[in-house]
Amino acid sequence: MTGSPLRLRPGVHVAPTADGLSVTGLGRVLTVPGPSALGTTWDMLFPAVHRGGPAEDLVATLPDAHQATGHAILRVLGKAGLLLDLRARGALDDVETAQFRRTVSYLEATAPEPYSAFRRLRETHVRVEGTGPAALAAGRTLLRAGVGGLDCPSVPDASGAEGPAEVVITVDGNQPPDSPLWCGVFLCGDTAVVGPCGAGPLGEYTSAATSPVAAALAGNLAALHVINRVAELTEPPHTDVIEVEGMRVTQHPVSPDTERNGLK
Question: What confidence tier does 204 reach under pLDDT thresholds 50, 70, 90?
């Protein structure tokens, strides 16, 4: 880690325990073993690691008696992938990272390789098939996130792209399109399903006029499915069921056959 500028990932939470430090980040919980006094070292180290810098410089902010412990904490965080290598961020275009700073911050908090994921997103061409508030929400969210090319009739300022789309979102289309990656949105009253699926998960519901709230939520969630897939997040393949009443979103695993045809 020496010499490479490092910074703590957004969303990482560190708390002292009787056994050392409990660290939560990237969907995992780990322990930095040691005495409860580790909490004191971490409190002194946190401002520096939050700002970022080479490991030696971060540890140099500590009193001499705490520097060995500070190195040990950084080694554990680095091995767990919870420290960002800022040299990789420096290779990105400054204008793009400023324009899409929320996307970069989200990827820094969630993606194994956030800066490679951002570059892939900037090169990804997405097509949104369908109209209405769900298609509009999906298209706008993808555009704000920085997707490289967007074909979406509901979004007049969509960037467009040459060649076939790598990812397709369909709204109320039961059959997957001829595309390597697909995310379906199916709407029914106050309920919606988002993921590599058709109407099947909604079989228990009665057809009804689509709720604009359900449609907007579903469109945004479909865009998030695409972003997560492009970022290669390691979440299990699933569909999301949105229920406006109670504002609930529940995850349901998909079958291997569906996974092969959808976002996996």
Answer: very low
What is the distance between the alpha carbons of residues 264 and 254, in angstroms, rounded to a whole number?
Answer: 9
Q: CA-CA distances (angstroms) from residue 33 to 20, 23, 68, 76?
A: 5, 11, 14, 10
CATH number for the segment(s) 93-261: 3.40.50.720
Structure-token pair, residue 227: 């972003």
% of the chain surpassing 90 pLDDT: 62
Domain range annotation of the chain? 5-87, 93-261
Backbone φ/ψ region at 59: left (φ over 0), alpha (ψ -120 to 50), beta: alpha
Q: 18: which residues sit within 8 A by CB, 6+ positions away?
A: 36
CA distance 141 to 221: 9
What was the pLDDT predicted at 205? 45
C-alpha dist (Å) from residue 91 to 9, 83, 98, 197, 227: 18, 17, 13, 37, 21
How do residues 60-76 score in pLDDT, each as one tens digit? Answer: 999 999 999 999 999 99
Helix (H) or strand (E) holding 193: strand 191-195
**Residue from 205, 208, 190, 201 nearest 246 by CA:** 190
Say which CATH architecture domain 5-87 belongs to: Alpha-Beta Complex (3.90)
Bridge partners for 170 per DSSP: 129, 184
> Which residue type is seen at 10?
P
Q: Which two tokens stand for residue 128?
A: 């949104």
Check residue 177 and report its DSSP letter. P
